[in-house]
Design goal:
Layout (H helix, E strand, L loop, with lengths): L6 E5 L6 H9 L3 E6 L12 E4 L5 H13 L5 E4 L5 H11 L6 H6 L3 H11 L6 E5 L12 E5 L9 E3 L2 H13 L5 E6 L5 E9 L2 E13 L5 E7 L5 H17 L8 E11 L2 E8 L7 H10 L3 H9 L14 E7 L4 E7 L1 H5 L4 E6 L6 E2 L10 E7 L2 H14 L1 E4 L4 H8 L20 H8 L16 E2 L3 H4 L11 H12 L11 E2 L1 H22 L2
Helix pairs in contact: 2-3, 12-16, 15-16
Length: 527
């Protein structure tokens, strides 16, 4: 007779919850997965799926209580979702392992969070909380940051430098807030780090500190992270001390608390400052992928163990590798095809590739961390090898856009920004200085290639740009971007003075939109 398996509830059936579902099953637990989306990608992994809105904490509680009364329930947990408060509410009401609901609210609402930090003397930015049509006092001189009090993934989050930008940012932030409130806070200058931890009966067990790679102001787009950080141990300890103090200030790490914490910390000129703390393990491929790849330890496994009332095991690092995650993105448009995936997968040291897009999907330049096209994860003993592998693989993935498309055409028609004027958004793939910009305008106009030269189109030389050393959004050189264009178009595209040729219009599209912009331009010519 087969022994009855203990049951655990996991909130979320997205990609970020995949490791938790798989590991819980490996541990012999019966996985009951809840999500408001019955089409979520990891639904098929669950032993049982229930379609429940994760914001409905009373509904989740009622379902969990029915399980508890009919066969028992070991615990409830989540990773990489916004719903740690629902987990805490249910655990507290049913007497399951967890953290207090009030502590989870402190870690879910950025206004409450900042007030807890202030009360405990934790270094964090000056702030105020406001809502639609509410008056407020700006908490610090510009620049400021505006973000919803209750969302993740940098949705509705942006830097503002002027009063006019502030009004626009407030409206954008409120749109992404479930409660209709935003936090306005002082901007923190300096490099940013992510940290995961298991919280077990008053102990905060650190599970990795990663360098975050943030780009494209005024938004905060994470183009990747590298685990572990390359910063010196003394600086690391200061950052972790700040994080631990912040976790304790929220009430997550009291004596009987069992759970997890994820934090963002900055190293400002004045020292470490806490950005945010969430009462869960991270999303962003960190707790489920890069930390296990780099250390051999699995914080998700430990989070499941303690949520199910078991003793934590297996958090001691077994190796000292580096794991790098890198994103790939697109200019606006609609996906015609995705090329280079096989090359990316076969890149040495690449472990995983995650696609967020497919043929016929609309794409846009990212304004948050859920509007990127996908991610590559690598792991290697050597940091340089890991970073190079992830970056090369990400650059190998080419996104061909459909023609015609009004959004792509509008994007390409915007004149490329120049150095000293990089503030326009979305930015161009290449940012020219004034001399290069003037040289671009002096190029001859392109001539539509004729049928007399099938498969071959000459590109009029723009030597100053070719030799500029500039890179595109993904770090491709001009030469690498031209190679990407050749691979995508299937055309021979020599740079030379032969005729017919492509001139100024081609280079404008290339400079504004990289290989994608140039491919779109070629497609509109019918080449």
């Amino acid at each position: 007779m087969t022994a009855k398996r203990e049951r655990i509830i996991i909130l979320g059936a997205g990609v970020m919850q995949g490791p938790a579902i798989n590991i819980a099953k490996e541990m012999g637990l019966f996985t009951i997965v809840l999500d408001g989306d019955p089409g979520a990608p990891c639904v098929p992994l669950a032993d049982r799926f229930e379609h429940i809105d994760l914001k409905d904490k009373e509904g989740v509680e009622a379902f969990a209580l029915s399980l508890l009364k009919d066969g028992g329930l070991a615990g409830i947990m989540t990773a990489g979702t916004d719903f740690s408060a629902t987990v805490a509410w249910t655990a507290e009401r049913l007497g399951l392992p967890g953290i207090p609901y009030e502590a989870a609210l402190n870690a879910s609402d950025k206004g409450r969070m900042r007030r807890c930090f202030d009360a405990a003397g934790i270094p964090s930015p000056a702030f105020t909380v406001t809502g639609k049509d509410e008056s407020f006092t700006i908490p610090a001189p510009f620049p400021l940051v505006v973000k919803p009090v209750d969302n993740m993934g940098a949705r509705g989050c942006r830097r503002v430098d002027t009063e006019a930008e502030l009004e626009e940012a407030l409206a954008g932030g409120i749109k992404y807030s479930r409660s209709g409130r935003v936090i306005v806070e002082a901007y923190m200058e300096g490099p940013e780090f992510s940290v995961d931890a298991i919280v077990y009966k008053g102990e905060i067990i650190i599970c990795g500190l990663a360098d975050r790679h943030i780009f494209f102001p005024p938004y905060f787009i994470e183009m990747g992270h590298t685990m572990p950080t390359a910063f010196p141990p003394a600086e690391q300890e200061k950052l972790l001390d700040c994080f631990r103090a912040a976790v304790r200030s929220l009430g997550i790490a009291e004596k009987n608390c069992i759970g997890a914490a994820k934090g963002d910390v900055k190293l400002t000129p004045g020292g470490p400052m806490i950005g945010e703390v969430a009462a869960r393990l991270s999303g962003g491929y960190m707790s489920g992928w890069t930390y296990p790849y780099s250390s051999g330890a699995e914080p998700v496994r430990t989070a499941i163990e303690i949520a199910a009332g078991r003793e934590p095991r297996g958090l001691k690092p077994l190796k000292s590798w580096t794991s790098a995650e890198r994103a790939f993105i697109s200019i606006p448009g609609k996906v015609k095809s995705i090329e280079g995936l096989e090359k990316a997968r076969n890149t040495p040291h690449v472990k995983d590739i995650f696609l967020r897009i497919a043929k016929d999907f609309p794409v846009s330049f990212p304004v948050n961390n859920v509007s990127k096209c996908g991610n590559v994860i690598s792991a290697a003993e050597n940091r340089e090898d890991a970073c190079r592998a992830a970056e090369e693989a990400a650059r190998s993935i080419l996104i061909h856009l459909e023609t015609p498309n009004a959004e792509t055409s509008a994007f390409l028609s915007a004149f490329p920004a120049s150095k000293g004027n990089e503030g326009s958004f979305p930015p161009g793939a290449f940012i020219l200085d004034r001399e290069l910009k003037a040289a671009l305008e002096s190029l001859p106009s392109g001539i539509v290639p004729g049928k007399s030269s099938p498969g071959k189109v000459n590109i009029y030389p723009f030597f100053a740009f070719l030799d500029s050393g500039l890179g595109d959004y993904m770090g491709r050189s001009v030469a690498e971007s031209l190679e990407a264009l050749r691979a995508l178009s299937g055309l021979s595209l020599p740079v030379g003075t032969g005729e017919p040729f492509l001139g100024k219009e081609f280079w404008r599209s290339f400079i504004r939109g990289g290989y994608q912009g140039a491919a779109y331009y070629l497609d509109t010519l019918g080449t």
